[in-house]
Specification:
single chain, 324 residues, alpha/beta, 6-stranded mixed sheet, 5-stranded parallel sheet, disordered C terminus, binds 2-acetamido-2-deoxy-beta-D-glucopyranose, Hexapep, EC 2.3.1.30, signal
């Protein structure tokens, strides 16, 4: 307890300063916190918007405006489309408005003040390349996606993902107060959408959380870029470890519905974890794992190898009509 207090007072005065954070780590924190701090910095560096990302986001925003105008006269949807899309200035503004309006509207539990929450969302997301990449991931990889508007307004996986990006931003500030805001956001998202992702977990860009119900991702988990996570997926601990105890998922990994991945293991780039699989061992790059740690060797069946390869190809962004 005392070390936690010491850590928090250290962290609040020295938040964001690289060397100070490192020192705080060495003196007071467990290895996992050091890991979380250093990789959070890496993710931040990797996810900072480039000129190309900003151009893509501007293009997404233009498409959103077009689509919104085509339905603004709907008696049922007009008002929502007006306040959430047409009155916004850019993609960050749209996403922040949507997240804040949903998280603030608590009927039970804690109330988060809507306007302050929206400002915090804008600050957290405005230089982040990942929300735009997430929109494109949905458009290219979810066959049910018919519009950009649907992605940002009606996909709760998108909402839960962006809310976690905001909570992660608060968590990374390190002070007790910021970390509790992060935990409050986690709590609201979990209440609203049954998606429980710790704010210290690192989620790469281009994430598609399809259906997004019953997803649990633990504190020291990491998910690389361009991954797809179906409903009821758990990235958890084994219950036997403390510290750095959650899975590290590579890039372009697909986690099928109900997949349970446990422990500080690595799932390699391009791997597929089958529905309902239970995985407690490393999965090599490009492999498919099903059942209990059962690797399907793509060399055994050329037909199967072909299927896996085709799936990897369809994760790319050039899917009909949706590349912008
Ligand atoms: C993720 O997808 C984007 C868009 O296709 C691509 O530019 C980027 O290189 C991909 N990153 C990884 C690590 O797969």
């Amino acid at each position: 307890m005392r070390s936690l207090l010491l850590m928090s007072s250290f962290a609040s005065t020295l938040a964001f300063k690289h060397h100070a954070a490192e020192r705080t780590c060495r003196v007071f924190a467990t290895r996992s916190r050091c890991h979380a701090l250093s990789t959070a910095r890496q993710i931040k560096a990797l996810s900072t918007s480039t000129v190309e990302d900003k151009a893509r986001d501007a293009q997404i925003f233009r498409r959103l405006l077009e689509e919104a105008r085509s339905i603004e006269h709907s008696a049922l949807l007009g008002p929502a489309v007006q306040s959430q899309i047409l009155e916004s200035n850019d993609l960050t503004d749209v996403v922040s408005e949507i997240i804040a309006s949903r998280l603030a509207r608590a009927t039970t539990g804690i109330m988060l003040p809507r306007d302050k929450l929206k400002e915090a969302c804008v600050r957290a997301l405005k230089e982040d390349a990942r929300p735009g990449a997430d929109v494109m991931a949905i458009m290219s990889r979810d066959p049910a996606a018919i519009s950009y508007l649907q992605c940002v307004m009606f996909f709760k996986g998108f909402h839960a993902t962006q809310a976690q990006r905001v909570s992660a931003n608060f968590w990374a500030k390190g002070s007790m107060s910021a970390r509790h805001v992060a935990l409050a956001i986690q709590n609201r998202v979990s209440e609203l959408w049954a998606v429980d992702i710790h704010p210290a977990a690192e989620l790469g860009g281009g994430l598609l959380m399809d259906h997004a119900t019953g997803i649990v991702i633990g504190e020291t988990a990491r998910v690389g870029a361009n991954c797809t996570i179906l409903h009821s997926v758990t990235l958890g601990g084994t219950g036997k470890e403390r510290g750095d105890r959650h899975p590290k998922i590579g890039d372009r990994v697909v986690l099928g519905a109900g997949a349970t991945v446990l422990g500080n293991i690595h799932v390699g780039d391009g791997a597929t974890v089958g529905s309902q699989a239970v995985v407690t061992k490393d999965v090599p790059e490009g492999m498919t794992v099903v059942g209990l740690n059962k690797l399907l060797d793509p060399n055994i069946s050329p037909a199967r190898q072909d299927t896996v390869k085709k799936r990897i190809e369809t994760w790319q962004y050039e899917v009909n009509g949706y590349s912008i």
